[in-house]
Specification:
Elements lengths: L1 H29 L7 H7 L4 H16 L8 H26 L7 H14 L5 H20 L6 E2 L4 E2 L5 H11 L4 H15 L6 H28 L3 H8 L7 H25 L3 H11 L1 H20 L15 H23 L6 H10 L1
Antiparallel strand pairs: 1-2
Helix pairs in contact: 1-3, 1-11, 1-12, 1-13, 1-14, 3-5, 3-8, 3-11, 4-5, 4-15, 5-8, 6-8, 9-10, 9-11, 12-14
């Protein structure tokens, strides 16, 4: 029973993360990031936090699939091969999706999972070391390679993405979710996946640690913004997603820890409700919903709004933030019912089934 509660909380967190990605991605191409209205700022609350939670949970999922106390050498090799096959599947699928949606995250997942396959059976303390290493290495690379290399930040296009040098740089250093430092979220998620979430002490400690990290960064930002006029320091402390400087990494980790602990905690009180189980099914199909919202969801919003989709930022005739929020909610409801109906006949979502058929 305790295992079931933990899984329900995990899937509820994934459902929340995918809803946040709906909001962020629909707003990215149909909204206006220069809009300073309260409604637009409300949507930006999901910016960064949804993607980072998504990666944390992916790391947890990888750890959970290898969470027995002992494995034979043959079993370890088999699981490593499964993870590597899934990594290759996501890498190729993500590259195909990137032709339509340049900010794809799936091919980066392929990179995270390749590293995960090498370290997944190590003691969980090494996952923390890998997290710290990823963050430190990224900041060292900042010294030698200007972060803006390859970027046109006016349109958010990566100019030399489909060259060998550009693709390598984008994948490992300054892409949307590049290996460094974003691997840190994945390996931290692997550490979280090794914890016993049936224990309330784990939930409380994770929430407290997350809160301390997050509010410490918020306090630091307030102080620096109030008293400093150093342009570089202000840019560093207030950076948001691009580039993912240390304050951004720590604040999003803090929020992620609090959210995961929250969903794990509340799951034991609500897990028997049918609507909760169906939301959990939506969380189990995040790969499918991620792909569908960037294709079907974008095309549908394009048709409804009359604004043509373009991978380049276009602030002409933006959709009102409240309408984007409403569309995101409606699209999530449709995703909920799709998951509910699909789940009556199949255990996994369409793309989850395809990935398993390739990797198992």
């Amino acid at each position: 029973m305790e295992q079931r509660k933990r899984i329900i909380g995990f899937d509820l967190a994934r459902a929340y993360a995918i809803f946040g990605m709906f909001v962020v991605n629909f707003n990215m191409v149909f909204g206006n990031f220069n809009d300073t209205s309260w409604s637009s700022q409300l949507l930006t609350l999901f910016s960064g936090n949804s993607s980072t939670l998504f990666v944390l949970l992916a790391g947890m999922g990888t750890a959970l699939m290898t969470n027995r106390q002992t494995y034979s050498e043959e079993e370890e090799n088999k699981l490593r091969k499964t993870i590597l096959k899934r990594a290759l599947f996501l890498f190729v699928l993500g590259l195909l999706l990137a032709l339509w949606w340049p900010a794809d995250i799936l091919h980066f997942y392929g990179g995270y999972m390749t590293i995960a396959a090498l370290i997944v059976f190590l003691n969980k303390k090494y996952f923390i070391w890998a997290t710290a290493f990823s963050i430190v290495l990224f900041h060292i690379m900042l010294v030698f390679i200007p972060y803006e290399t390859g970027w046109d930040f006016d349109t958010l296009q990566y100019n030399d993405l489909w060259t060998i040098n550009g693709f390598t740089r984008n994948l490992f250093y300054n892409g949307w979710n590049s290996m460094f430092p974003w691997l840190a979220y994945f390996t931290l998620g692997m550490y979280l996946g090794r914890l016993d979430w049936s224990k309330s002490q784990v939930q409380k400690k994770t929430s407290i640690v997350g809160g301390v990290i997050y509010f410490s960064i918020v306090f630091l930002q307030v102080v620096v913004n109030q008293y400093s006029t150093d342009k570089e320091l202000l840019e560093f402390i207030n950076a948001d997603y691009l580039p993912p400087f240390l304050p951004f990494l720590l604040s999003t980790i803090g929020i992620g820890l609090m959210l995961i602990a929250f969903f794990m905690y509340i799951s034991k009180f609500i897990e028997e409700k049918s609507i909760v189980r169906n939301i959990a099914k939506t969380g189990q199909m995040t790969l499918t919903h991620y792909i569908l919202h960037l294709t079907l969801g974008v095309i549908l919003l394009e048709w409804i709004s009359g604004k043509e989709y373009s991978p380049e930022l276009n602030f002409d005739n933006p959709i009102h933030p409240l309408l984007i929020a409403l569309y995101s909610i409606i699209y999530f409801v449709l995703s909920y019912y799709f998951s509910k109906l699909w789940g009556r006949k199949f255990k996994y979502g369409p793309f989850e089934m395809l990935m398993r058929s390739v990797s198992n």
